[in-house]
Specification:
mainly alpha, 86 residues
């Protein structure tokens, strides 16, 4: 397992220890980078306009389409570090 993958997995556990709510924008960025880092490019149909949360998640993930999984994992690690610093 690569160092990036190990740090990514650690970050995904550590983010739950955040002392304060990072806000919706940061949560969407974390979600998008986590999904890109684990699954790759967004797939499936975009949720309907009445599914606000699902649509926001889909849109956030779609914004980083094409980013490599390793780059997404590195970005996720940096985002988690920012969240944990408060």
């Amino acid at each position: 397992m690569s160092d990036t993958k190990k740090l990514f997995e650690k970050a995904s556990k550590d983010v739950t220890k955040a002392k304060s709510d990072p806000g919706n924008d940061m949560k969407l960025r974390l979600y998008a980078h986590y999904k890109q880092g684990t699954e790759g490019d967004v797939s499936g149909d975009k949720p309907g306009f009445t599914d606000f949360v699902g649509r926001a998640k889909y849109d956030a993930w779609a914004k980083i389409k094409g980013m490599t999984q390793e780059d997404a994992q590195k970005a996720y690690i940096k985002l988690v570090e920012r969240v944990l610093r408060g």
